[in-house]
Design goal:
This protein is of the alpha/beta class. Helix content is 33%, strand content 22%.
Length: 507
Amino acid sequence: MINMDTLLKTPNKLEFLHPLHGYSEKLSSSGSSRVQNQYFGFGSKKPTVRWGKCGNLRASSSALLELVPEFKKENLDFELPLYDSSKGAMVDLAVVGGGPAGLAVAQQVSEAGLSVCAIDPNPRLIWPNNYGVWVDEFEAMDLLDCLDTIWSGAVVFIDDKTKKDLDRPYGRVNRKLLKSKMLQKCISNGVKFHQAKVIKVIHEEAKSLLICNDGVTVHATVVLDATGFSRCLVQYDKPYNPGYQVAYGILAEVDEHPFDVDKMLFMDWRDSHLDNDMELKQRNSRIPTFLYAMPFSSTKIFLEETSLVARPGLRMDDIQERMVARLKHLGIRVKSIEEDEQCVIPMGGPLPVLPQRVVGIGGTAGMVHPSTGYMVARTLAAAPIVANSIVQCLGSDRGFSGGETSAQVWKDLWPIQRRRQREFFCFGMDILLKLDLPGTRRFFDAFFDLEPHYWHGFLSSRLFLPELIFFGLSLFSYASNTSRIEIMAKGTLPLVNMINNLVKDTE
């Protein structure tokens, strides 16, 4: 949901020309990420403005997009210590990608005294995404100071009659502060930076050679791929057929909005805004979208229309059309747009080959929550695991090679309990893929009636298989009879597949 430069190609021909460097929960069209793909409606010519009788913009996606400003890259004012290729020195760790995941590992490995080189085409560029997290997740990592806004709770609208109040604080990440904090610590720890793009990696017995597009070769014992969903360095040996979360968001100045500024809007599944467009309403009934909103004041708000998961993903212009209809119905008149985001997040699919020479983290390592699209907190929490494993192998007297170190890191990153947890989440995604709007409403009506321990744990990847089984049984008990029948009918095959995968997967 908001739930972060290499080429990604998937079987349905999605092409991410510039995924966020090293980390991608959202791909921002206002940033360096722009998906040039006709299926999703990206890369189209700038729309023509259409004016209403009174001179106001009509409720059309063309009019809305006309308010989107030209993106201006904003860089942090840091003097980065550069990697000196002329010396040909080998580093302990080369981190490819400068997003939150890559920088977190670079920071923690260098704190232990190991040499680190961070490679990224734009290492000082401020991440363009609006990251949202549950406050308790960042509190557990001592990162509360990196939240610039905190809401006391969240709200879910199931339909026009049913509203859920979630007593769980939610926050927006101050991406500029978080990156500044990480960069400062990396610089203090002696991390060297190289501004380039890795185009090839050659593995030798004792080291790996990272060939960059500027002709420089970086020599490293271990390579960490933190390039988001690029899958350029980390290898997969199974067909890649994930579901896709697709969303369009705007940070906007509005005349007014109807939302409580003390609560964030987690999900709004209402569809009364489509009553005057039956064709669009029918499309939404088949593959529903919801509104996610962060109200910063009575006139400033982040609004995002989101398709939770679909295969194939919804077209971007379809989602924009639904958003415009919703905003018009809610009486929200957009005066200006500070930034926009076009987001495509692969969810589920197979894990990469375990183990392999290149270590992965974040999207490239299959760490996106297959049922929700969340990854920020999960990946930041995994960074110490990856870093500690590297330090234990390379900082010891045991003389681990690059291959042995990589194998140990993969083992620590994806232990059997995490792989089983992910199988269950993929099972949940497979059910969500089959639900229309009424079925989705029934599902989340029961989901948010669960004991907080269960829905908190599910969304934050804190439940493991034994508890996930109780979670599933509890969800089934809270569900309506119609929902139970639907879950049994549509969930039987995914359940069988999950059980088969669990049986096959051993230590």
